[in-house]
Design brief:
CATH architecture of the domain at 46-240: Sandwich
CATH topology of the domain at 46-240: Immunoglobulin-like
Number of helices: 4
Structural class: mainly beta
Distance between the termini: 41 Å
Shape: globular
Strand content: over 45%
């Protein structure tokens, strides 16, 4: 046991192991006994005169609205679907029912189970996107695959999909020799909706199907999800208006046994979601368990920009779209992963939360909301407090809003506020204008107020030319990272992006779709220093057979890197080149292959690093599959800052990243997944530098020391879905890390070092049930 872990265990003595496990066992037994009846009640729509079983043979479908004019949107050729596709929609008292029939021969069907919310489902999927407000501002995606896997998410800012959100909805799948079928029931409480008058309401809706064996997607209407006005351009339908209200309780119980410190901790808590009507929602968490049962990807990051991790905790994914305000350069005004993170003044661990509360409401064209979260004290460190408020007004083609955040960090004697004004304008289909004004107000020794602004114009009417223009300014004092995520401040940037597409080819042509892409980026910092500018050219070809190739060429001019030394002066870098090619093949019904080869300059001379990525996927059976990602990087010239000495070093490096996932679905609601990640790095020292006053590198005539890093993470997770959003987890996690100074060690030795030097060894049980 490490000294730090031993001290932490003495300060925070855990309950005896038997106490935690008895609590979990008792709660699990009670809920598992009650689960079958609750599941039977929730999985059918018998109260509406139909059974949700995936067969479109109930009487309600005879009176549904029918949509059958599907055309190709991926690629966007607008050609009619060669395989008949039919979507039916009917509004019921308990929700919106959607039934889809997708004709396709069995020989062209692709099967394979996937984890919930997988970015890419492994079987043929059907996607349903619904704007429940009918206002064109936010939509929700509900996707079901041929093998019964599901994905749901929120579409923000017209075309930005976030799959962190999980909703309560129901689905069923069936098939025969001619077609496969999906039935979906979306309760009216699954998403907020405007209060209205009259007996009907307007919704926006979009249907899509994808045939993986042909790498082709067909939709109605045939618009691309990347279109800058995608949500506004959804097809409008009018349905009867029904009342919507619900009260959901999510009690949980969990137990974790840490084998490194030989201690067990049990927790019990409650989440609550109350929707008195379709316009208002209150979410609360009492003694919440924000521990994760889904592991993050391992990363090796030697840059000055922190890595971003998506949110997986239920409280922060439910009803969060109002606060999910994003910026260019991957920035976010609210990054909820800050809450419950490592306590201030510590390098490891996490903070427990006392409680959290969230509210959102719709009032005509106005949408308002607020949430707060409060951390418990960690030993002698006071916990942090977080507050956020949001107001947004929406017209037919224009929207504007304000977002404010406040964070109190007592351990650092720091209080931080941010204020943002944002606006969206959609003058016509395919054209969007978006922008924000930002300000940060920080009370802390040496802190100063900061400001920023950005403007983005996108025009993509679905024709040959798509254009994007972006102007951005963040001053040197802008600070959003107390609750948000800003990769960097101190930036002035002008970016343009042009895509020229060809969609019409002769029937005997091998090509189906081609695209030229040209992106330019000009940058300088707030001091007027010129940062490297970038010119990027892409060529994409999609073939009639299910594979495609994308080639890219990028040139960066010389310029200053003002981040590499972490505030100790800029470094003048030479111009650099990058060239790469990506190949993707849908392959057979049993698997697919992706490969990427890249050559790039990343140091200070003209030598090239090369990186090869291979990502095969294979299904042994539809319920047993493996995904592998292998990345090998070999670089003769790698420039890194060494904070310990205040110097920069050049190394040659070899880096291997392996990610292996083996998934088995023994039943329709059970999943057993093993996920292994390993990163190995070897670096041989070449030269050491100091940065001169003019930014040029001054050699010191000595080589930096060789070093190695090896990091390992293993997670074995069993998940059983009792009912929608009601789950039982059993998770084993193990991690290892090793650092050395012998760069000639082989990969086998690095693997053994990470395996032997264990940094995490835990077993956890968690049960969360929705009443």
């Amino acid at each position: 046991m490490s000294p730090d872990r031993a001290r932490r265990a003495r300060r925070n003595p855990a309950p005896r192991p038997w106490q935690a496990w008895i609590v979990v066992a008792a709660a699990a037994a009670a809920l598992l006994i009650a689960a079958p009846a609750a599941l039977a009640d929730s999985a059918t729509g018998e109260s509406s005169g139909f059974k949700l079983d995936g067969h479109l043979d109930d009487a309600i479908w005879q009176h549904a609205e029918v949509f059958d004019q599907f055309a190709s949107f991926d690629p966007l050729t607008l050609e009619p679907s060669p395989y008949p596709t039919e979507a039916r929609v009917v509004a019921l008292p308990e929700g919106l029912a959607v039934g889809m029939r997708a004709v396709v021969p069995r020989s062209l069907r692709t099967y394979g189970r996937s984890p919930r919310d997988a970015a890419r489902l492994d079987a043929d999927p059907i996607r349903i996107v619904v704007d429940f407000e009918g206002a064109g501002r936010v939509a929700y995606e509900f996707t079901v695959s041929l093998s019964g896997s599901v994905r749901d998410g929120v579409i923000l800012n017209q075309n930005q999909a976030s799959y962190d959100w999980d909703g309560t909805w129901f689905h069923a799948v069936s098939e025969d020799d001619e077609a496969w079928y999906v039935e979906v029931l979306l309760p009216w409480t699954v998403a907020p909706s405007l209060r209205g008058t009259g007996d009907t309401r307007e919704l926006g809706i979009w249907f899509a199907r994808f045939i993986k064996r042909q790498a082709h997607g067909y939709g109605y209407p045939a618009i691309s999800p990347s279109r800058p006005t995608f949500v506004s351009d959804l097809h409008r339908i009018r349905v009867p208006r029904y009342a919507a209200h619900s009260l959901d309780l999510f009690p949980y119980v969990s137990a974790t046994h840490d084998r490194l410190v030989d201690s067990s901790i049990g927790r019990v808590g409650l989440d609550l979601a109350w929707k008195p009507n379709g316009q208002n929602q209150v979410t609360a968490a009492i003694h919440p368990d924000f521990g994760q049962v889904e592991s993050d990807d391992l990363v090796v990051n030697f840059t000055a920009i922190e890595s971003f991790f998506s949110e997986k905790r239920p409280f922060f994914t439910e009803n969060q779209s109002l606060f999910d305000l994003r910026m260019p350069t991957e920035g976010r005004l609210v990054n909820t992963r800050r809450i419950g993170a490592t306590p201030d003044g510590r390098n490891e661990g996490s903070s427990d939360l006392l409680g959290a509360l969230k509210y959102s409401g719709l009032f005509g064209p106005w949408e308002i909301g607020a949430f707060g979260a409060f951390e418990d004290d960690h030993a002698d460190i006071e916990g942090r407090s977080y507050l956020a408020s949001r107001a947004r007004w929406r017209g037919e083609k224009f929207a504007a809003g304000w977002l404010g955040t406040w964070v109190d960090r007592p351990a650092r004697e720091r209080r931080a506020q941010t204020h943002t004004l944002d606006a969206d304008w959609f003058p016509r289909r395919g054209l969007s204008v978006r922008g924000q004004l930002l300000a940060s107000l920080v009370e802390a020794p040496g802190a100063r107020d900061g400001a920023g602004a950005w403007l983005q114009v996108r025009n993509d009417p679905g024709e040959r030319l798509a254009q994007e223009y972006e102007l951005l300014w963040f001053d040197r004092h802008l600070e959003l990272n107390d609750l948000g995520f800003l990769p960097r401040a101190n930036l002035r940037q002008l970016r343009t992006d042009f895509d020229l597409t060809r969609r019409a080819f002769p029937a005997d042509s091998l090509a189906l779709f081609t695209r030229w892409g040209l992106e330019t980026t000009l940058r300088q910092n707030d001091f007027g220093e010129r940062l490297p500018a970038r010119l990027k050219l892409e060529r994409e070809i999609r073939f009639r057979r299910p594979f495609g190739i994308t080639a890219r060429l990028q040139y960066e001019t010389d310029g200053r890197d003002d981040l590499i030394t972490r505030g100790h002066g800029p470094v003048q870098l030479p111009s650099r080149l990058l060239a790469g090619v990506f190949y993707g093949n849908a392959g057979s019904a049993r698997g697919r292959m992706e490969a990427d080869l890249e050559l790039r300059q990343e140091g200070v001379d003209d030598r090239y690093a090369w990186q090869l990525t291979l990502s095969p996927l294979w299904f042994f059976t539809p319920n047993l599959g493996a995904t592998l990602s292998l990345i090998w990087l070999d670089s003769p010239d790698w420039l890194v800052y060494r904070p310990q000495t205040g110097e920069l070093g050049r190394w040659s490096r070899q880096q291997a990243i392996t990610r292996l996932s083996l998934s088995w679905y023994p039943g329709p609601r059970a999943e057993l997944r093993t996920r292994l990640q390993w990163i190995a790095l070897r670096a041989q020292g070449i030269e050491t530098y100091r940065s001169a006053a003019d930014g040029r590198l001054a050699p010191l005539g000595a080589a930096p020391g060789d070093f190695t890093r090896s990091q390992l993470a293993l997670q074995v997770r069993y998940r059983y879905e009792l009912a929608p959003l009601s789950e039982f987890f059993a998770v084993y996690s193990r991690g290892g890390f090793a650092a050395g100074s012998e760069a000639d060690e082989g990969l086998g030795a690095l693997w053994s070092q990470a395996l032997d030097n264990t940094t995490a060894d835990q077993f956890a049980l968690k049960l969360r049930y929705r009443f």
